[in-house]
Specification:
Blueprint (H helix, E strand, L loop, with lengths): L12 H5 L2 E9 L2 E2 L2 H15 L6 H4 L10 E9 L16 E8 L4 H6 L1 E10 L14 H7 L7 E8 L4 E4 L3 E6 L2 E5 L9 H9 L2 E4 L11 E6 L3 E9 L5 E4 L4 H13 L12
Parallel strand pairs: 5-6, 5-12, 9-10
Antiparallel strand pairs: 1-2, 1-3, 3-4, 6-7, 8-9, 8-11, 11-12, 12-13
Length: 274
């Protein structure tokens, strides 16, 4: 198994077929956040795809090499080379690569919230890949190409059956009739590590909901394990025309601050009344 930030050969199956997995981990002064959640997801992906998993004693020291300050540690694991066409080798030799990138969270989006939009693209339903952070992310790339307005922070994605699933690179959360909910991810979508930690920390339910129900939501958030939680203040349709607006309240802050603590970010003050 090769290691480091060296290039992958052109015959690597991760390059040719997206045959692999990746994790992006927030690291502060060498301390990774939600590390065990990332490792559980990586191992689950290895088991489902049949890729040999690196040993934990090989992986655990890696985030500590990021050095002082805030970084994103990106880890890529591929099946390696070999096989005939799509047929993988009977005994694959997986490849591990990683990279450390300096990072600064967008604190303005924490405080002021974000504008998002619906995407026209619909996610394919494939339960075998649901929840995994695999390397084939072309659907997300196509969805992200749908807008270029810098005022739009994210795009919401539905599957082909019309269920809300996720944003292009974040999970979705909302409060409806006083209850916290998040989309069920048994058919498609990425089961984020922050999402899993919040499900364990809070009374939150996984549900199937269509986009037409978003105007019922008392609060809407997007989040992942790098950026934390962004409250949504405006939702547009897939042409950029406004559909729903929300005012920031202390309900938004309460949910955000659970995530802030999980990621070592500073807690946010209560919303100032006008």
């Amino acid at each position: 198994m090769l290691n480091g930030d060296t290039p992958l050969p052109l015959d690597d199956r991760g390059v040719t077929y997206g045959d692999g997995l990746f994790e992006t981990v927030l690291v502060r002064d060498g301390q990774p956040y939600l590390w065990d959640y990332h490792m559980v997801r990586l191992l689950a992906g290895c088991q489902r795809l049949g890729i040999p998993a690196p040993a934990r004693d090989e992986l655990d020291p890696l985030p500590g090499r990021a050095g002082p300050g805030l970084h994103v540690f990106k880890l890529i694991l591929t099946r390696g080379s070999g096989g005939r066409g799509y047929l993988p080798p009977a005994s694959p030799e997986s490849r591990l690569r990683w990279q450390y990138l300096p990072f600064a969270a967008n604190e303005q989006r924490w405080r002021e919230g974000v504008r998002v939009r619906h995407c026209a693209l619909r996610l394919s339903i494939q339960p075998m890949l649901a929840g995994l952070k695999h390397l084939n992310r072309l659907e997300n790339v196509l969805a992200r190409r749908e807008w270029s307005d810098p005022q739009t922070a994210e795009g919401l994605l539905c599957d082909h059956e019309g269920h809300l699933v996720e944003a292009t690179c974040m999970n979705i959360f909302w409060r409806r009739r006083g209850v916290l909910e998040t989309p069920r991810l048994e058919r498609c979508g990425v089961a984020g590590t922050l999402r899993q930690a919040l499900l364990e920390q809070l009374p939150m339910f996984e549900v199937d909901v269509g986009p037409g129900h978003l105007d019922e939501m008392e609060a809407l958030w997007l989040g992942n394990s790098i950026q934390g939680i962004w409250p949504v203040t405006r939702l547009d349709n897939d042409e950029g025309k406004p559909l729903v607006e929300w005012k920031l309240t202390d309900v938004h802050r309460e949910f955000q601050n659970v995530a802030q603590r999980l990621l070592g970010y500073p807690e946010l003050p209560k919303v100032e009344k006008p």
